[in-house]
Amino acid sequence: MTVRTTTILEGAALKRRVFNTAFILPVLVINILFFAIPFVKVFYMSLFKWELLGTHSFIGLKNYMTAFQDKTFLNSLGFTFEYALLVTPMLFVLAFVLALLVNHSVRGIGIFRTIYFAPVVISMTTCSLIWLWIYNDLYGVLNYLLTSSGLISKNITWMNQASTSLPAVCFMITWKMAGFNMLMLLAALQGIGEDVHEAASIDGASGAQRFFRITLPMIRAHVGLALVISIIGSVLAFEQFRIMTKGGPSSTTMTAVNYMYNTSFKYFKFGYGAALSMVLLVILGILSYFQFKLLQDPTE
Amino acid sequence: MKKTLCLALAILMTLSLIAFSASAETTDKVSLEIWVRASFYDIVSKAAAKYMVLHPEVTLNVVQPSDMSDQFALALSSGDTPDIVSMDCVLIPYYASIGALADITDKFNALAYKDAFSGGLLDLAKYEGAQYAVPFAPDVSVMLYNKAHFKEAGLNPDAGPATWAELIDYAQKLTIADHYGYIYGAGDSGTMMFTFVPYIWANGGDVMSADGTKSMLDQPKAVEALQLMCDLENKYKVSPEGITSYGWTESQDAFLSGKASMIVLGSNAVWGMITGKYDIDAGICLIPSPDGKTYSSFSGGDSIAIVQGCSNPDAEWDFIQYCLSEEVQVEEMAQFGQLPARSDLFDNKYFNENPEFKVLQEALRVGEAPYSLKYNEMYVPFLDGVQTAINGTMSAQDAFTSAAQNINALLAG
Amino acid sequence: MTSGANPIRRDGRERGKTGIVAANILLALAFLLPMYWTFISSVKDKGEIYASPPTLFPHTFTWDNYAKLFTAQGGAYLDCFFHSVVIDLSTVLLVAVICVLAGFAFSKLELIGKRFWMTLILFTIMVPFQALMVPLYNTMSGLKLLNSLPCMVLIYATYQSPFCVYMMKNTFDMVPDALKEAAYIDGAGSLTIFFKVYLPLAMPGVVTTIVYTAYTTWNDYLIALTFGGTAWKTFNVAIADLANMSDVLDWGMMTSGSIVSLLPIMALFLGLQKYFIKGMMSGAVK
């Protein structure tokens, strides 16, 4: 770079930065209008006893105090994290396997990619309903297959207890969402040039070594993003349990968002519901922060 | 240059989309918006069409929001409410209590047929002595049974179980490898309210005390009803194991696919059977009573109300009255299997053709409905209690005692 | 695996991959099973759908359930399908443009408060939408935008941008600066660099963004339900209504609706496959 006087350099850099802001302006404008401002309103609501109509009474942090003593809420948090911890590894192992399998320029690979991706495109609502039908213990096709092939002797009541419904739902979600993570990992793997692999194999590295020592570190950022998105999605799980287990029995499979939704829209306690979502947000924020820190490229 | 154009385009698109507003509505002399639940959309649209012919100066827009209760709550929060709303009768007390509905006591008392409504449904539409809604399209719970299964089991296909003893007996005879005797949806509180609480009422018990301040679930009469369900499940094994995971759909599907012989359903199902929509030849009877003397049912369905702060209460009441007239209640409702809200219209040519409707009418006569300002919230401990007892985690007495405590705590808080 | 011999054949495809293909075939078949069940259920007649035990090959075969999608309620489902298409295309267009730009900026340009904006955007995905429904509904009501196309598109764009922006940022991050230098040396201007160098290399990321936006918008239930009303009811909501709004769930229509719902996005995805080309980088650097 040519040497210039300080002020001119700063002026030019500043002007460039301001101009560059235009690139992010559209995203920011809609974000502020339709997310940030409503969000501030939610925080505001959480400090009140907010009924549907009429006056709202300011109660400060009382909603939060109630939340920390609310057994149903705490149990729902516990269940939600149990779910996230179970489904995330299932998702990523499968996603990696799929991504590696389809990261080849073989004829027809597009069809395989499409097949693995297809379940992602089904809406969560219809997917949950159809799988609920499949899992039904009286007339569902899964029990029929399992009993008629002799694998089990009695129908399994899949949705009747958390010990079976949790793995069952995780299995369904894995089938449904692995294709999406596969796609993200594929995009990442594609960014690694063939020459890198060639150089490595010339140097004598094995397939596994190349995967762990070269591939993984290079797609760290992508894996990190996929993980964050996936975990947030799992923690915010709503429809699948609401439809398949209805949160039961006895609220043992109630997810946090499900409880928050009921609080607002079924029990009409909007202020308390707002507080619950704030608590959830803080938890997610902390989680995501640590995730990003862990997966940050140390060279950055 | 291209870069700046691109940016400008993006910004322009964003701004223009924001600035683009819905086109202005043309306003007629009177224009009313009516929200109904999906089950009754056809009835109200047809009524509205007929009404608009009779009253050309009125425009009616009938809408069926996909999730009526949630959408109505949202609409209230921003003041974008409809003029008339037809909603689940059990939610009326709450909405009346927050001032969302208009007081129609005087209008109602002026009706010639005001005594022809179900007492239970009318009470649900009251708050602190004033009337806020009118029963419009009732739904009652009755028992349906598979006649073919009855015949195979050697039971009389023309008579369903009348007493608890018969229920147990029949269910045992009906439970074979292929199907269970009795099914219900213990996974969902709405379903249990509709199909199970009548057992408590018929037994002389109740969920809440008459003034709605205390829960009566821990009383013997209520516990006995729960014990019946537990016995059916665990002692006689006539109900499926997974029953606490079934909602309305699962239990009904089980009945429709012949996996269960007896079930409590509503008027819609009755109409489905009568019209042969489903391949089951079903019989209908009242929900079994403990002793064969007192019967009960859950009288639910929709009540219709005027939303507070709307444009034209008189025009709205006029349309509501039309919906309660013979023209609608008989020609649009009874003809298609929907129970009329007015008992003075029960004697009509459509119902007289089908004896099944007598059962529905009787059910409405003996029907009750629980009054609560915190309906949805209260029934969580109720359902938890039912589920823990049926799953054998707690005894029926303990489960309902715990439920009553939780409900009382909720009411106090 | 391969040493010495060039793994790429002359026609660009890889050799010696029969094992890969076989593994793919097996996995693909396993993946298809639930879809198979959905499809055969959609062509069974009502009696057979309720048959117990369930039939694995349909004994009856009828396109009725698909026909019903066209005819029911005076073509209502077709209208909803059309709504979904319009909303989807508009959203994809908006999101693609603004997120590629923003992602590029976050990756390669100097900005004021970059870290702050990035955090704010990431924040968006951490708040459950259910919590924001009431205030956002009030905002839209105040702007008189309820039940309109702009309303839905703007909301979708707001809530899908975070992921897309980050995706594009990561994609651009992977493009080495060496390319930029080389292009400058060759005398290209910055705009040419963006369109001729960065964008083509970022295509897999762009495709991911497009596909993500397309299917997220298509499948959305809550936003469509709350803000679309009946004026812009989407196909997904219409199908879900089969479960929520009627007494008995019509499994025939539910399954046929699900299959039909799948097709547009699948077609899009299949069509965009060609942008996933291995080794795009290697040619460029050499």
Summarize the structure.
The complex is a heterotrimer of chains A (300), B (413) and C (286). With 413 residues, chain B is of the alpha/beta class.
Estimate the mean pLDDT confidence of chain B: 89
Any idea what the CATH superfamily of the largest domain in chain B is called? Periplasmic binding protein-like II
Q: What is the average per-residue confidence, as pLDDT of chain A, rounded to a whole number? A: 87
**Named CATH topology of the largest domain in chain B:** D-Maltodextrin-Binding Protein, domain 2
Number of domains of chain A: 2
CATH class of the largest domain in chain A: Mainly Alpha
Number of strands of chain A: 2
Strand content of chain B: 5-15%
* Topology-level CATH name of the largest domain in chain A: MetI-like fold
Distance between the termini of chain A: 23 Å
Spatial order of the strands forming the largest sheet of chain A = 1-2
Low-confidence stretches of chain B: 19-28
CATH homologous superfamily label of the largest domain in chain A: MetI-like
Q: Identify the quaternary structure here.
A: heterotrimer
Work out the helicity level of chain A: over 70%
Spatial gap, N to C terminus of chain B? 65 Å
**Element-level helix/strand string of chain A:** HEEHHHHHHHHHHHH
Question: Biggest sheet of chain A, in brief?
Answer: 2 strands, antiparallel
CATH-derived architecture of the largest domain in chain A? Orthogonal Bundle
Describe the structure.
The complex is a heterotrimer of chains A (300), B (413) and C (286). Chain A is built from 13 helices and two strands. With 300 residues, chain A is mainly α. In chain A, a hairpin with a 7-residue loop joins strand 1 and strand 2. In chain A, helix 10 runs antiparallel to helix 13. Chain A is flat, with a radius of gyration of 25 Å. The two termini of chain A are 23 Å apart. Chain B has two domains: 179 residues, 3-Layer(aba) Sandwich (D-Maltodextrin-Binding Protein, domain 2); 184 residues, Periplasmic binding protein-like II (D-Maltodextrin-Binding Protein, domain 2), CATH 3.40.190. In chain B, strands 1, 2, 3, 6, 11 and 12 form a six-stranded mixed beta sheet that branches. About 2% of the residues of chain B have low confidence. Chain C is mostly helical. Chain C folds into two domains: 47 residues; 212 residues, MetI-like fold.
